Structure formats: structure tokens, C-alpha cells
Amino acid sequence: MTSVKEGLGDKRGDILMREQTTPPPASNAAGLQSASVMSGRGREARFLWLVPTVYIIFLMLPIYWLLNMSFKTTNEILGGFSLWPRSFTVASYVEILTNPVWYNGYISSISYVFINTAISVSVALPAAYAFSRYRFLGDKHLFFWLLTNRMAPPAVFALPFYQLYSAINLFDTPWAVALAHCLFNIPLAVWILEGFMSGVPKEIDETAFIDGYSWPRFFVKIFMPLIASGIGVTAFFCFMFSWVELLLAKTLTSVAAKPIAAVMTRTASTSGYELGLLAAAGVLTIVPGAIVIWFVRNYIAKGFALGRV
Amino acid sequence: MDKTWNNKAWFMVLPVLVLVAFNAIIPLMTVVNYSVQETFGNNLFFFEGVKWFQEVLNSPRFHASLLRQFAFTGLILLIEVPLGVAVALAMPRSGPWVAVCLVLMSLPLLIPWNVVGAMWNIFALPDIGLLGYVINAMGISYNFTSQPLSAWFTVVLMDVWHWTSLVVLLAYAGLVSIPDAYYQAAKIDGASRWSVFRFIQLPKMKRVLTIAMLLRFMDSFMVYTEPFVLTGGGPGNATTFLSIDLVKAALGEFNLGIAAAMSIIYFLMTLLVSWLFYTLMTQSEAEG
């Protein structure tokens, strides 16, 4: 950390120096320099790319290691250290994609994630609109109370949730997990959407109402397209937090709706420590996330910028 | 933005209210119930008042995991926030590399938490993991399953790996929203790189950074799955954070009263600190 800051500091000094000194003699250098000063980031920009690059390499290393392990045989893994698979095998993947215990795990995970995202976004839309446009009795308290649920440690709720969802006969269905994940996803969705909606000028609403739009028609036809990227980002966040959560998902399912993450823990504990299989399952849980990021990639930056900035 | 007073807005909030209340209030009341009662099995409960609370607040075990929790959360915030800001500052503002950076950086955020734990377990194993192998090859004795210091190092590094990108994404969003005119004005005034950061970029990032810190505080304070999968709270109790301790008490030892009282104390602490953050945030929003 400090080295990065010091590095920036040095270069900052450089730029100041260069800006204050008289124009350099060589015309070629002068052209280069004025161009770099014009771009506003100067010479430091030339080495600045190193910081994100090193950071991304750091992020990719454990993922590479997981991939590496997933293509090794169990014998090779236990045999010792090697930077890449010597005897390349896809046996672990074949096992996962053909064994119903494994692939059903993926199906149930994906189904509760989608149900949860759909519920969260659709109920959060009108609520976020209310918070961004109106003042009403207890609005601030309500907003904070919603947020407190995002703050509640799932460990606190694990046991009561089990009892609650057993009592209403939803235990071991994707619906139980989807509804339980609403606890933290709805507050988050309301929060993000409210940020986006507050960025839309109120005059647009007023003009539409003067033009004779009813509220639902205005909301669907005019307002939702305006915050489309916000809805995308919100859905992305709901997907993300529902996909990665395990404690509640594991507590609320036993056999039929077991999420893939829980299938993995069971494999790790019962059938010895099959690292190759575990690694392959891990790689496959990264795939849906990677696909989703790919779809929202243009919205992440734009979306974040439009939100609460 | 000036908002109109309209109590009918409650109808728009109602679905959210019903769904969240169903999930929040019923379980919370169950926990409150357990926290003041003693059970001898057979669903027989006796009122105990604040006995469990006294017991938890006086137990050295709770103090120890609380201390570990604060140390962990503090360390995480100290590392991740400056690092995230530095990476965001160094990222390109436009061009094809932006999308590549954003996609690759978001990747850790979308990996299920137990997979993160399992992945780092494989990555850090002293004999066959890349990290463990390299550290040991450098002559430093490293084994996260037996040395508390190694375990802490691995858990913190894992969290930095997992969550710094969240800070980067939020800080970056704050940075790209700064109009070019600000930078041009700074250049005309001959502002140094540091003053540009201090007086233009930092104030513009204040809001997103508060959100980032709020999210990082909340999530690191309730961290459970990743350290549990990686170290199981060990070696000994070295990485037993509050959530791990709580689940041990509730599901492992079935000490319902103790676990419930712990839950409530834990929840109230999270609430208090989050409320402080939230107040700060709404204040900065009011200032614009």
C-alpha cells in the first residue's frame, strides 16, 4: 500500500517539476510532453496500469489454482506440488455432470436464485419509488429498519428460520430459500433502486402526469426504461447475494432442494477429501457468476455511477 | 430533492414490509423467547429473566471471540479501503480495458462463500497449494492449520482477495462521475496530484466510500462461511469469530439460551455501529 502511495507521490513531484521548468529544447520531447500534460495524467499514466494489473493477477491466482486442481487426478493431487496438471483429466467434470446428486444441486441453486431475484426486484420497485419521491409517516424509520435486516447476521436466524419454514410446510423447497433470502436482498434492492430513482428529475414524473399518464402506465412506460440500468444492477446484486449465501440455504433444505454449495460440503466430509471433485464443482459454481457479469458488464460502471454517486 | 408529503405511499411499501417483516420479526421473536427461558427438553420452558445475558456478558469465551471479531473487522477495513481506492485511482477511465478490469475484478464477488473457503484451502495448503508452497519455499514456516499466525494471515488475505473489489467498484463509480471540468479547473490552478485527490476526488468519493465501509463493516462483522470452511475456527480458537462461536453454541452444543442471548447482544452491536455509519451517510447526503 504505502509503496503505491509513495510511487504516486514521486510522480506527482515529477509533473510539478516539469510543468514549472522552461520548455525543453528538443521539439519532439516537447510535443510528447505537452500531449501528456494535456491528457491530464502525465507520465504517471504510463506505469499506472501496473496497479490494476498486479491486483487482477492476485485475484486470478487462487482461481487458476482451483482450475489446475480440477483437471488433475486424485493421485496426482496427493502426489505432490505441480504448477499444471501432468496427466490432464476431465473425469471430475464428467462425474459432476452425469451424477444427478451433483447436477440437481445446480438446478435447485439456480431456481431459488431466480425466484428470489424476481420477487426482490418486483416488490422493491414501487417501494423504492415511494422512498425517493414521497415523505410519509415513519418513512425514515422504516428505511432504517429495512436496512437493519441487511445487517442481521444470518447465524442469528438460522435456527428460527428452520422452525418457521418447517411450520409453514415450505421446508426443503426452493421457495423457502428464495423467501428467506428476501430478508437481506429486498433491503438491498430498495436501497440501490432508491439511489437510482433519486437521480431522475422529479419534473419527468410531473410532466407525465400532466400529459395524462396514470401512475402504473407512467411507471412501466416511462420510468422503468429511464432506470433500466439501475434495475439491471439491482438484479445483479440480488443474484449475487443469493447465489453466494450458504448458511440459510443449507439450513432450509435437506434432500430435494439442496443447493450445490451444500452438496459440496457433504462430499468434502463423507467421501473422504476428494479435492479434484471439489475443485471441479467449485469451478462450475463460478461459471454462472461469470456469465451474469458478462451480461451486465456495461452496466456495472455506468450503473454504479448513476446510482448513489 | 424536495419530496411531497403523501401517506398513500405506504401502499407502495406494503409488499416489502410484509415480506421482510415475515422473515425478520417472527424469527427475532423466537430468539428473544429463547434468550429469557430455560428448557429441560420436551418443549417445557421456564422464564429465566436476564440470566443468560449475564452469563454471556461475563464469559471469557465471549470476550475472546468479540476481541477477535473487532481485530478482524478493523484489520479488514484498514487494508481493503485504502487498497480499493488506490486500485480505483489507477484504473483507466475509458477505453476497452475498463470492461475487462471490471469483469475480472467482480469475479471473486460472485463465488459462493464456501467455495471461496475451499478454494483458499486448496490454494494455501503447505504441501500442494501454490501459496503455502511458495511461502514455505522462501524459508518461512507456514501452516494455516496448526499456526495461529498463519491462520490469521490466510483468513485476512482471503477476505482482502474476496472483498476489495467491492470497494474498487464503488470508488471507481465515484471517480468516473466527476465531470472533466473539475480536472481542467484544477490544472489551470496548477493543483498537484495530491490536491486533486484531496480536494476533488476524495470529496466526490465520500458518499460511495461510506457505503463501501458500511457494507464491509456489516459483512466482515458477520463473517462465517469462509473462515469456517478454511480453518473451522482453529487452530484452537484462534480464528473463532462471533458467528462461528454462535453457531457452535446453538447447533453444536445446543445451548439455546446462551446462543439466543449471544445473538441478541451481537445483533444490537451490529445495529449500533451500522446506525452510526447510516447517520454519517444520510448527513453527507443532506450536505449534497
From TrEMBL, chain A:
The chain crosses the membrane at residues 47-67, 110-131, 143-163, 175-197, 218-244, 275-296. Residues 7-17 have a biased composition (Basic and acidic residues). The keyword Transmembrane helix applies. Residues 1-31 are annotated as: Disordered. It is a multi-pass membrane protein. Belongs to the binding-protein-dependent transport system permease family. The keyword Glycoprotein does not apply. Keywords: Cell membrane, Membrane, Transmembrane, Transmembrane helix, Transport. It comes from Mesorhizobium ventifaucium. Residues 106-296 form the ABC transmembrane type-1 domain. It holds the Pfam family BPD_transp_1. InterPro entries: BP-dep_ABC_trans_perm (IPR050901), MetI-like (IPR000515), MetI-like_sf (IPR035906). This is ABC transporter, permease protein. It is found in: Cell membrane.
UniProtKB/TrEMBL annotation, chain B:
Keywords: Membrane, Transmembrane, Transmembrane helix, Transport. It is a multi-pass membrane protein. InterPro entries: MetI-like, MetI-like_sf, Sugar_ABC_transporter. One of its GO terms (cellular component) is plasma membrane. Residues 66-277 form the ABC transmembrane type-1 domain. SUPFAM superfamilies: MetI-like. GO terms for biological process: transmembrane transport. The chain crosses the membrane at residues 12-36, 70-91, 97-115, 122-140, 160-183, 208-225, 256-278. CDD domains: TM_PBP2. Its main location: membrane. Pfam families: BPD_transp_1 (PF00528). The keyword Ribosomal protein does not apply. This is Sugar ABC transporter permease. It comes from Mesorhizobium temperatum.
